[in-house]
UniProtKB/TrEMBL annotation:
Keyword Signal recorded: yes
InterPro entries, per the entry: TPR-like_helical_dom_sf, TPR_rpt
Pfam families: TPR_16
TPR repeats, residue ranges: 237-270
Name of this protein: Tetratricopeptide repeat protein
Keywords noted in UniProt: Signal, TPR repeat
Species name: Duganella dendranthematis
Cleavable signal peptide: 1-22
The organism's place on the tree of life at top rank: Bacteria
Keyword set includes Signal: yes
Length: 395
């Protein structure tokens, strides 16, 4: 991939597919944290607030869902409320990872936010919940020089077994549970989902916030969120990858190298950790060792995410729109639903005078957008494109 991109893992990723069973035996030492390099956080994250309910949420549970009782399947009532447009009216929005109360107030969130909110409501109803990591391929996105790999989490609403504590994971009647998911996933992936502890889910939330803060240029706040993620679950390796990338952005190359070496030592074939570590070694002029990692990366992943996309953008800059279109189409073959690829295919086709294809891809960019902001941008561009096409037909 040229230029080399720093890679973070977002949206409920516990480990990358194929690596989930490679759990480290011991937690790393505290020397991976370097608080003295960063300013105090502008707004410390209160981890107790992540699952906390507001009075409005409790009122909703009381008046809209009721209380458990004979003949009442409150799980089904909550399940229906999550999906029906005339109830909670939830909307998927990947722009920000929110707490339970923030998600409820906004009526929107990414998969992790929606799972956290659902768990909070379920527990108010005395329902046991099981968070699950879903075994599907990670979804890639980007913001400037940062690339994000997002995996997926959902949860199941269970019934407590007779005489058991309803909050214990082992006390759930799994056979009769209801799976809550906010994006479609293959049945086999749902069957192979792995349970997650609440401390891991909390670490995921904090890791997401760290990545989002870094993307917004708030490097100091990003550090403290990533540090809290590692403290919430010291065996959640993605937090150390995020710490390494934050150190990179802050200009702390030795600290970045240490954090990324630890992450890579735990999951040696993880291409994200390898790529970030190789980039850090290159920045430190350790070119021989970096070259070894690059060669290993090339064997593990000959065409990394966005490989053809980056080449297509270079072709666009050179005005070679036909080549750009071909390269964007190759990338689209690998990630057919990624909105930005459809957008650039629309632009390339527009430059080639193929307005029908440009219209189709701009519409697909809008349909596949994962944030309200992107949806509005693509909608406006689609309107402009159609107005221009109408003008041409009128001539």
């Amino acid at each position: 991939m040229t230029p080399w991109a720093r890679i973070l893992i977002l949206c409920s990723a516990a480990f990358l597919s194929g690596c989930a069973s490679q759990t480290p035996r011991v937690a790393p030492a505290q020397q991976l944290f370097h608080d003295q390099l960063f300013q105090p956080p502008t707004a410390p994250i209160d981890t107790a607030s992540v699952f906390a309910l507001t009075p409005e949420m409790r009122d909703y549970v009381k008046h809209e869902l009721g209380t458990p009782g004979p003949g009442r399947d409150v799980r089904r009532m909550l399940f229906d409320a999550l999906y029906r447009r005339d109830k909670l009216q939830l909307e998927y929005d990947a722009a920000l990872t929110r707490t339970a109360s923030e998600t409820f107030a906004a009526r929107s969130g990414n998969c992790l936010s929606l799972a956290i909110m659902t768990a909070a409501l379920a527990r108010e109803l005395k329902m046991p919940v099981i968070f699950q990591q879903v075994q599907i391929d990670e979804v890639w996105s980007r913001a400037g020089s940062l690339y994000f790999a997002s995996n997926h989490v959902n949860l199941s609403l269970g019934r407590p077994l007779a005489g058991q504590n309803p909050y214990l994971l082992t006390a759930v009647d799994v056979a009769n549970s209801l799976t809550v998911d906010f994006i479609p996933i293959p049945p086999q992936a749902r069957e192979n989902a792995r349970p997650l502890t609440e401390k891991t889910v909390l670490a995921m939330y904090l890791n997401n916030r760290a990545a989002e803060l870094l993307s917004a240029g708030q490097v100091d706040d990003a550090y403290w969120a990533a540090r809290q993620a590692a403290e919430a679950d010291p065996l959640f390796i993605n937090a150390y990858n995020t710490l390494g990338v934050i150190y990179q952005h802050h200009g702390d190359q030795p600290q970045a190298e240490a954090a990324l070496r630890y992450a890579q030592s735990q999951l040696p074939d993880n291409t994200i950790y390898l790529s970030n570590l190789a980039q850090t070694l290159e920045s430190a002029n350790k070119l021989d060792e970096a070259a070894v990692l690059r060669a290993r990366l090339a064997r593990l992943e000959p065409y990394p995410p966005f490989y053809f996309f980056v080449q297509g953008q270079e072709a666009m800059k050179l005005g070679d729109y036909a080549r750009a279109r071909t390269l964007f189409e190759r990338e689209l073959d690998r990630v057919p639903d990624y909105h930005e690829l459809h957008f650039w295919l629309a632009v390339a086709n527009y430059q080639l005078g193929n307005l029908r294809a440009a219209d189709r891809h701009m519409a697909l960019a809008m349909e596949n957008s994962t944030t309200r902001g992107d949806h509005d941008v693509y909608s406006a561009k689609l309107d402009h494109l159609r107005a221009y096409a109408a003008q041409l037909r009128a001539k």
